[in-house]
Predict the 3D structure of the following.
Amino acid sequence: MASLDLDWEEVREQLRAWREDNTRHSEEVIDMWEYCLKHYKHKLGDERWMVEEQVVVAGLDSYRLDIAEHSLVALNEQFPGSLRVRKLKGMRLEALERFDEAMDVYDSIIRQDETNSTARKRKVAVLRGQGRIADAIKELTEYLKIFMSDGEAWQELCDLYLKEGDYSKAAFCMEELILTNPHNHLYYTRYAEIKYTQGGLDNMEIARSYFCQAAKLNPGNVRALYGLFLSCTQVSSSTKCSAQKKKETQQLATWALKEIADRYSKCRTNAMDGSKILETFGSLSITEKA
Amino acid sequence: MRQSCSLLCLNTTMAVVWARLAFLAGIISLFHAGYSAAQHRAYMRITEQEYTSLPTDIGVQGLMSLLLTMYGILHIAGDFKEIRANVQLQNKSWETVGNRPTFYTFAHRGRALSPNYIPPKSKSLLDNIENISS
């Protein structure tokens, strides 16, 4: 069995950082486990079981079922009858596309413990995996009636509505998220993008103000600056806009343009010339009918 | 529980060792100052002198040991978190913030990159031609 010459403590720190950061690096986790940390698993102490759980999920994600099953067996021996391990067994059935059996497993967990939120969320994921988006939406709205403050569930609902093309309901979900985290510039950006997609002068003005707020919270958010420029040009080229508002909006658009050019010039390479960008901006706009 | 175990753990840097020694020394000195203040009070009572205020050396010892303990604790406890809520999010992208681990689905195209993946059998052209002509 191949074994890389990595410092196992650094690997452990990296896995812990990924666990806490909530990121999805499934293939790297599997590689690190397979080639390094697996040989030191007895030195991990209490952390070993969290790492094993992380490895199970990563293995199911990158379809390395042999590794995932190995860790799942170890977890089952250590924690027999645990609901958390049962949930992982359900996830394994999902990865094997045995969706009905997975549903049964989650139903049994809910019967045993009414307050278990993760099993209910996995049921939504099963429906999503099968492609039944409408059923997934229904199940998730039922879940949110009980567990109203779950930010992740609101994000997932927003994503499901976007898949269906239901922009007004997706905007409502993003509004709920902004209420929970009013300092998060990414939520403002996403909300503004949904409003921009809906179209129409009112939505465009709302999008413009939310892009402004996102750029104010984080001046490094280039996406918000681009969005600001686009929504400003849309508002100023609309027929229902008064002359004074048009002037203000155009000033805002030129400011956004300048900021973007500044940012590009800061990370300039020889191949990229900052001055050309300002010329190409003129052609950057989305028209109503193609 | 894990914090106390880590205090006793052996593989640590020199700065952390000094911080722990400072903390211990500060705590012991603080107790010593308190005990000597109590002893001083008892002595005053025995010799029937008026008790006006603590002797300066005990006061100074108490203050210095407090500062030493605070210094030790700050180094053991780790860095402060940024108080402005939006600064932490400056460098995060939607990839990390929008990630929903409890809703992971596994029926995605990443499966095909795994060495264990068996592509589903597809019908060959001949089968289709036979179906059409019959």
Summary: The interface with chain B takes residues 21-24, 26-27, 46, 57, 60-66, 91, 94-95, 97, 118, 121-122, 124-125, 128-130, 152, 155-156, 183-186, 190, 217-218, 220 of chain A (CB under 8 Å). Chain A has a mean pLDDT of 88. Residues 167 and 198 of chain A are 7 Å apart (CA to CA).
